[in-house]
Design brief:
With 137 residues, the chain is α+β, with helices and mostly antiparallel strands. Strands 1, 2, 3, 4, 5 and 6 form a 6-stranded mixed sheet that branches. Strand 5 and strand 6 form a beta hairpin. 24% of the residues are buried. The chain contains 4 helices and 6 strands.
Length: 137
């Protein structure tokens, strides 16, 4: 079993879904680099908390559905994720709409010593922004 098996799923379930920010120190290396940060988010480890707080403030009921199996190859793990929630707080300048959202993404992480050291991601931000009315469909 590879070093990173299940880290993405655990992050989405326990940190994003449950809001357990204390797990960031357990799951993320101090020399972490995010290659796909949100606008205003640091690409370093402190940016992980910013990401979680931003998403949970906008969608307090945010939940992730991950698919099985995750793809694992050596120290790399990839996971397709579908996120759902209700837009109840501001997101990147867009006032809360009360609308339900469902959008997807793919995450790839590199793991070293049992912790995430790098992250690459692609999120369907266009669908999310259309669902909250920020851009026309």
């Amino acid at each position: 079993m590879a070093d990173g098996t299940g880290l993405i799923k655990r992050f989405y379930t326990e940190v994003i879904g449950d809001g357990n920010l204390a797990l960031i120190d357990e799951l993320v290396s101090d020399d972490f680099v995010d290659h796909d940060p949100l606008p205003g988010q640091s690409p370093a480890k402190d940016g992980v908390g910013y990401f979680v707080n931003t998403m949970r403030a906008a969608f307090p009921d945010l939940r992730a559905k991950t698919t099985e199996p995750a793809l694992v190859d050596g120290n790399l793990e990839a996971q397709y994720v579908v996120l759902t929630g209700t837009h109840q707080g501001e997101l990147m300048g867009v006032a809360p709409t009360g609308r339900s959202v469902e959008f997807s993404g793919v995450d790839i992480i590199r793991v070293d010593g049992g912790k995430v050291v790098e992250h690459w991601g692609a999120t369907d931000t266009m669908t999310l922004m259309q669902q909250i009315g920020a851009v026309p469909k």
